[in-house]
Protein: ABC transporter ATP-binding protein
Organism: Nisaea acidiphila
Amino acid sequence: MLTVDNLSVAYGRNTVLQDVTFHLPSGSPGALIGPNGTGKSSLLRAIAGLQRHGGTIALAGDAAPAGRIAYMPQDTAAASSLTALEVTLLGRLGKLGLRVARSDIEASRDVLHLFGLTDKQDVAISALSGGQRQMVYLAQALVRSPDVLLLDEPTAALDLRHQLLVLDTVADLCRERNIVVLAAMHDLTLAGRFAERMIGLGDGRIVAEGTPEHVMTPDSLADLYRVTAEVSRTSSGRLAIVPTGLAGPVQ
Ligand SMILES: Nc1ncnc2c1ncn2[C@@H]1O[C@H](COP(=O)(O)OP(=O)(O)OP(=O)(O)O)[C@@H](O)[C@H]1O
């Protein structure tokens, strides 16, 4: 269980997160939703130990869990000449000795294979497409075998098939390894498919929390995003969110 208590983040005098308190159980994929600029990335970075913050973060009672957390940033642009395999392997850095063990390479190859990137493993990361690069950085996070996996818009650059592949892979991993997973997402229908727990962030505070059904009602979507939206069930029982119009003035 990840416990975030009274967390705050400020950039200079600009406080962007305040009084953020929530629990996220292991084994239940979590989605973090909310409008642009509301503090989702700041929250993920604070949990990952990459952002100065107030308040406390604990993982099953461990008050300094940063070493057990893997974080995939939103921006994976890279000018590096490292290959996809090398970038993935970097995820094992904490575990690597002076020599790279065969098992580290195999673990890295396996994850790249899972994402259909076997034929790209020796290609420089700078020569990959945006979606391929996003999957390589996800592979890097996965090979760390973290206890907490934080993903910032992990499907933003992916086509329909790879969106499902990546999210289903991460959700399965969350349940099988009983780890904590929190992904910031803008596609609410995808988020509803992926997540068992959802946190709605508005203006730097938690404004809704619970199951996707509870968080993604027309009223709470109007509060969060200032849009009107239809929330329905598909014939297979999944939640579908269709924004239908703007509500309220642009701020
Ligand atoms: N390094 C920084 N220095 C100063 N202000 C920052 C910095 N990073 C973010 N901010 C500000 O903090 C606020 C929250 O930004 P953050 O990136 O956390 O939002 P977000 O919810 O992830 O947005 P998006 O959905 O657009 O990615 C914004 O107003 C942003 O301008």
